[in-house]
Amino acid sequence: MNIYVGNLNYKVREEDLQQVFEQYGTVDSVKVIKDKHTGRSKGFGFVEMKNDEEAQRAIDGLNNTEVFERKIIASVAKEPKNREENR
To answer: How far apart (Å, rounded) are the C-alpha atoms in residues 27 and 67?
Structure first.
């Protein structure tokens, strides 16, 4: 399951986010989204967990909780819209 994580502290690194989510199960990948020009975090990212039950526990356990001094949002990530449809 792909998990959207929003309202991240701009100092949070991918390793930090992985440690937070590993409390709930196996994390396959973590991506903090960064501005392509400055390299600074945009304040959100994605965590991939294969086990849906563990992922849902992580969402339930972390949504609206304080992580690195910010109250984060954790939810099931929405599939990206097909860019061809929007043209």
So the answer is: 17
